[in-house]
Amino acid sequence: MAFHNRRWNFTFSCCVVVLLLPLVAARPQQPSAATRVHEEYSTFRVENTEWTFNHLAVDHRNGNVYLGAVNRIYKLSPGLDIQVSHQTGPDEDNRNCYPPRIVQPCSEPLTLTNNVNKMLLMDYRENRLLACGSLYQGICKLLRLDDLFKLGEPFHKKEHYLSGVNESGSVFGVIVSYGDASPDKLFVATAVDGRPEYFPTISSRKLTRNSEEDGMFAYVFHDEFVASMIKIPSDTFTVVPDFDIYYVYGFSSGNFVYFLTLQPEMGGGPTTGSSSAGREQVYTSKLVRLCKDDTAFNSYVEVPLGCVKGGVEYRLLQAAYLSKAGTILARSLGIGPDDDILYAVFSKGQKRRPKESSQESALCVFTLKEINERIKDRLQSCYKGEGTLDLAWLKVKDISCSSALLTIDDNFCGLDMNAPLGVSEMVRGIPLFSESKDKMTSVIAYVYKNHSLAFVGTRGGRLKKIRVDGPTYGALQYETIQVVDNGPILRDMAFSSDQHFLYVMSESQLTRVPVEACEQYSSCNECLGSGDPHCGWCVLHSMCTRKEKCERSSEPRRFASNIKQCVRLSVHPNNISVSQYSVMLVLEAHNVPELSAGVNCTFEDLAEMDGLVEGNRITCSSPAEKEVPRIIVDQGDHQIVQLYLKSKETGLAFANTSFVFYNCSVHKSCLSCVGSPYQCHWCKYRHTCTHDPSSCSFQEGRVKQPEECPQLLPADRILVPVNVVKPITLRAKNLPQPQSGQRGYECVLTIQGVEQRVPALRFNSSSVQCQNTSYMYDGMEMSSLPVDLTVIWNGDFSIDNPAQNKVHLYKCDARRESCGLCLKADPLFGCVWCKGENRCSLKQHCSYPQSMWLEHNGINSKCTHPRITKITPLRGPREGGTLVTIRGENLGLEFSEIKDHVKVADVECTPVPEGYIPAEQIVCEMGKAERSQFAGNVQVCVGECRPEFMAKSSKYYYFVIPQLLSLKPSRGPISGGTIVNITGGNLDAGSNVSIMFKDQKCTYQRRGGQWITCRSHASMQGYGNVSVSVYVDKAHIHKDLKFEYVEDPTITKLEPEWSIFSGNTPLTVSGTNLDIIHTPLIRAKYKNLETINICQVLSPTTMQCMAPELPYSISKHKDVPERPDEFGFILDNVQSVLALNNTNFVYYPNPVFEPLSVSGVQELKPGSPIILKGRNFLPPTPGGNGKLNYTVLIGDKPCALTVSDTQLLCESPNLTGRHKVLARVGGIEFSPGVVHITSDSPLSSTAVISIAGAGGLLIFFIVIVLIAYKRKSRESDLTLKRLQMQMDNLESRVALECKEAFAELQTDIHELTSDLDGAGIPFLDYRTYTMRVLFPGIEEHPVLRDLEVPGYRQEQVEKGLKLFGQLINNKVFLLSFIRTLESQRGFSMRDRGNVASLIMTVLQSKLEYATDVLKHLLSDLIDKNLESKNHPKLLLRRTESVAEKMLTNWFTFLLYKFLKECAGEPLFSLFCAIKQQMEKGPIDSITGEARYSLSEDKLIRQQIDYKTLVVNCMHPDNEKSPEVQVKVLNCDTVSQVKEKILDAIYKNVPYSHRPKASDMDLEWRQGRVVRVILQDEDVTTKIEADWKRLNMLSHYQVTDNAVVALVPKQVTAYNSVNNSTVSRTSASKYENMIKYTGSPDSLRSRTPMITPDLESGVKVWHLVKNHEHGDQKEGDRGSKMVSEIYLTRLLATKGTLQKFVDDLFETIFSTAHRGSALPLAIKYMFDFLDEQADKHNIHDPHVRHTWKSNCLPLRFWVNVIKNPQFVFDIHKSSITDACLSVVAQTFMDSCSTSEHRLGKDSPSNKLLYAKDIPSYKSWVERYYSDISKMPAISDQDMNAYLAEQSRMHMNEFNTMSSLSEIYSYIGKYTEEIVSALEQDDGARKQRLAYKLEQVVAFMSLES
Q1: Cα 342 from chain centroid?
Q2: How far is Cα 611 from Cα 1291, in angstroms, rounded to an integer?
Q3: What is the pTM of this model?
Q4: Half-sphere exposure of residue 713: CA atoms within 13 angstroms, side-chain side
Q5: Tens of pLDDT along 1315-1353?
Q6: Strand ranges (E), 325-383
Q7: Same domain, 1549 and 1668
Q8: Labelling 1457: which of 464, 473, 1015, 1803 has CA 20 to 30 A away?
Q9: Is 1156 in the same domain as 1144?
């Protein structure tokens, strides 16, 4: 082929490249095929986005292409290279200027107007092109075809103005020839755009030979009565104001000219009158016919066209094309092959929506013959006087037909009577093909080898190729290709002159597409099965092509054109074993041409050999031994290899078949061996599988059939109770008898991963028994455990178990804590409820007589004492219908037992069989309650209502009345998808809720007590209001709520239409109705990945969006722009904007920055500009105005920028020193390095010289002195040298330390963020969390336990406490009680905190009341604070009152959800980051000091050499699981290593659920035998002087990649601690002591370990000897270094952790973060403080700020930050604690309003964050200001929220125990409290003192 030598520069459509990739890969030996398709696709794109393409014409004589566009006409070569272009616009114009301004001046304002090309016609006779535009009322140019030279442009007469309409697709012209003698005529039809008086809608014009002649475009005939034109009467516009006729296609055939139109219907249907009344206009498609010779247009006839497929009407014409029928289609239609047929594309229905939402369309075919017959029939009936003229738009009123005696033949051209005429009955086309996803928009067709082929363009830019064989055979869509990037494809399509190519056009590109792409099919079946009539199979070249392109295709069987002619190949034998070599194979080939040139046989890439051809048989041999494929166990037992026949003539494979190599020895069981499809035999006694029967004799037990295999037979469930000795007998067949030297049978049971082997006995060939043994499994979580059972013999020969029999081990008492659950167990288990022991056990294990048993079907089979544990819901409507779920114990075993025995609040509740779980759960449906019923408990009787069979709930079920208040938003799009929030009361009652918008459901989503949300559906009723009602079970709640469906939002414009790959550039979006969408999103889809970004609505017509990023890894991008596959918006459910068709959105490559310099540091003088180099800084947008919004920060100061494509010039701000440079653009942030700005020397040259001179003199003087000194003393000289060396040494180490610190800072940040992967966050449950905050350090607090009172006093005490509880719930009493306690001297700070916490535990279930009391107490506190003339800022600073601790507790209760959903994550990340960063360096296990620290006190100030090791640790729970790699340091103590290993293995396990390091020993495993236990102290521990150093890994010389294991602690004295040292018992005692103090610090942070051992006086150390022991000898000073130098490490650590600290602060100090709204409690309390400040006339913002800071950040957050163990299940070490304290201090400083003056003497932790605190302060101020701007929370909303919180945590604490604890204070201060109550008026009225005395009496009464 000659193609691949040329170079082509065409831009190809992407889809073709994709299409071809598999092809190129599959057949590399034929590059030309791919190249050819590549070069056949060529594309011409718009030069300017405004100059969109309109029309297309191809010169069929030479193939040149003419393209009409906005403002341009182009002449292109057949390959779409541009040859000439002719400019047609833009020009000054106004559409209202008639006649246009080029004829006479116009008073309208003129603007530069584009010229749309509306018509492009080839006038072959005169070799010219007619190009009509939209400028100047639609004048036309005549251009010479060769060079587009303008031959003429008539514009001065009114017939020169075709129409002012500026749509390109509503005008059509047909040039008609009348033989050589007469000139041609032009029939032109156009839409008139509401100006019927100026423009005829259809007319015939003269085409003069001379293009400049006066008569050009004159009407063919014109006098005062008649003209060759038709105008639309103005009356028509009074009926349908926007009436117009749109012309879609036109052609001439025979004696007639035809036009296809789309026009509004005039009928008296619903559309009569103004279409603006909201009704949609109905359209109809019609064909118009005129005689060619008719000058008066009497022959005008109109016929409606349409198409019906599958009951769906398609009536809106989109495109049409006239073609010949072709033999096959003609035969099917009953016409001649050369008859004309008309293809037409219609879309569904008759309503033309602005952006037609329906994508459904159909391709239909009409025969012209039938249309003409139908017109002839109508003409005949009309001239008989039947019916009316039926042309409503032209005649407006009905006119009857007049009769006349005429013969009407096929060519009748009408008279001036009965004309023009309309046919009322629609001509139905034959539907060929329909499409519902991608609307068809254009069609063209031709006949190839008798086949009719239609090519259809679609809205999505695709081309469908359809073979049309007619109604009997149907239509086959055989290929679809993506031709243009952005659809739709326009109506004009054209074939090249040789019909090998098709020109397809969208508004922005014209593409040449080959009509066939046969090369894409790589096999004969694919090629001939494709349905493309162009394609056939060229056999020996093994390619799909047209016949004329296949060499010697006329010879027999060399070219296949039918799928039956494809080559078929078979081989015998078609499989062999891998151990057989060079076997002769016979291949039989069918449909092959003669193969005289010879063939080769090829086994893929294994082997190739000559084949011997005899007729159609070919003989080959199989591969030799070294070429046979190796088959390994993983691949199965065989490998399929393709066997190819290669022609020696072409060198190509032309036929292939599958050949199998199999390997029997892969099979390890008899059944799989003999069940293999290959010849495999099983050797029973050798337990092997072979293909060779001779290698396994009959004596060796050869097996061929599955029935003969040794195997276990299916058994019923094998049940074995645990710990019961029992044999297991199994049925089998063909069990082999072990031969001499072979071992006997065993059963292998794998229980929880552990293998248990049991000897077994073979009774005979059909039975085997596992001997008496008992079995056991761990845990009580499973009541039964299926266990795999394998029977083996001779050690490892397993017997097949095809039924996969399992042994079921079971425990009666597991998961059967109640009688009901016990009796529910499988009867075969034999479990009984042992009443005496109150447990479920086997009969034989119950030590009581049988009368004390309950068993399933025994005499006693009914459980007593049913119990109800839970009821949901607890509230419902009176109307009933609520499904109440009752959970409990012993709730019957049969449904019949409880069927009629359930009452809820005294209302019958009918149990539902489906919801019944025996013994555990009843679901019943509530009946209707009376008005008088309000609440009651739930009562269930089992069988009979005797006390022992009856259960009553402790909780009540309440009847409530749900109510509706309002809904928001009250309107949404007609397409639905709006999230509607309905507010009201009691909306969480009942079990089922549904929301109706009139007759339509609104999909329920969530609900709470006062709200329900649902998602609206698309409206069925159209626009307007619908009433909203809610059903809660059977209650129908109705209020006059309305939801309005309004028109869907539309998107009209995007600016700009580009972004960069990383997105996040601002876009302005214009459209309509945008404000009805609450959360609009913008989306992009690329390569099946989707990204979204947010939008903000600014007004109903505009919104601002951030561009989504291109969803594709940036690294895969070359530097080329990309277009997303889809780009659009998610606006609720509005489908029309999901993927915009009218946008050309482009993504340009991201800007790329280069580093500032190789070292990353650039030296600069002040004022010098900083130049950032790179590329893509200015996106190459079409208008060239693509600007990105860059920000460049030097340090934290922005700089002014000048941007070019490769440089950013930054005017550096007035700074000196080192500063990081940071560039931001879109979604990218990049730091090209650091600038170092050094200031110039301020000294003058004279000063410099004089200083230098003075310096010189000084040096001279020093030298003299030194010489003198040297002479004086040699000794001091030596000392000096020694000092000098030490100084050098010190200096180099300082430098090294600084350099290390810097390097660590740079690398650690990255490592840390990548290491902290999303481990689950171990949140504590609500109860544990609140207890840790309320009662810190107390593990088992009484409020968690039941009240402990001696039995004889219990009733008395409970009565007393209930009374006391009522008093606590009395506000007067409670306030008086608290005030009295606070006024007592003995009432300590600790007591205050305790009382506040106890009161809050009692009031947990009544938070509204608690809040009210708290507000009173706080108000008192503020009054007291201001009265005592304290500084108002001190308010709430310290916990000196009950109120302050109550406030902390209040926040503790109400911020749990916020912690869990929002703030917990960054807090946990910070904790993990600190822990991880600390552990990367050495930590002294005794002093708690660390190399990495935020706290100066906990910083190791020495240089410690250490190395990181990786140890491989066995999993303690499962040694078989893979080893875990753990990073440790060689200077870690053994305990530290154990902790690190536990952290790694139990990474996602909460701390309390892990094994403790102290319970485990660390074993170092060296090889299989040697195991050394490593310990902190043992006999090998080194003791120097009186210091003993703990053992580290380096002490044991543990190597990198050593294998270690954690094993439970050994009791033996194996390398145990020497007695003279700190013994293990004393250490563990010490650990226990710490455990109960509740302190978070680790054992190591305590100094006691350093105190010398009393007996031996030995002190223990690890890395540094404690500073207090200043016993280092003077000689050691040489190794010391200035300790302050190590403070740089604080900075390194701070830098590493900065991101985590920022994240935490940002979360806490933002009003809406991570999807969680601001907790109501914060807003409510801040508003309360503001009210109090207003009340006391405090207007100082600092005071208000301080109150808020003291109230929330200091009271709650600081506590949580310092003590993350209050929130998470974790362990906090002393070094972590020290770092968190620094963070907490920074947090406190950020909340303060006072300025901190810092100097070099300030503490390091203040200096560390000094630079960050100002920005944190601004966050805090913004946070407080945002909160104050938020709308106030009403008391009603707050109370609802508090009630909800109370309900959620109702039973967390034991109220009785709490009351008892509070009562202890009453006992202590009885007299004082009673007297305070007697003095208070309110208390006297309520006789509270008397009531308290009653309580005291009850509590002290000794009965």
Answers
A1: 49
A2: 84
A3: 0.48
A4: 14
A5: 555 457 899 888 888 888 888 888 788 877 787 777 777
A6: 340-348, 361-367
A7: yes
A8: 1015
A9: no
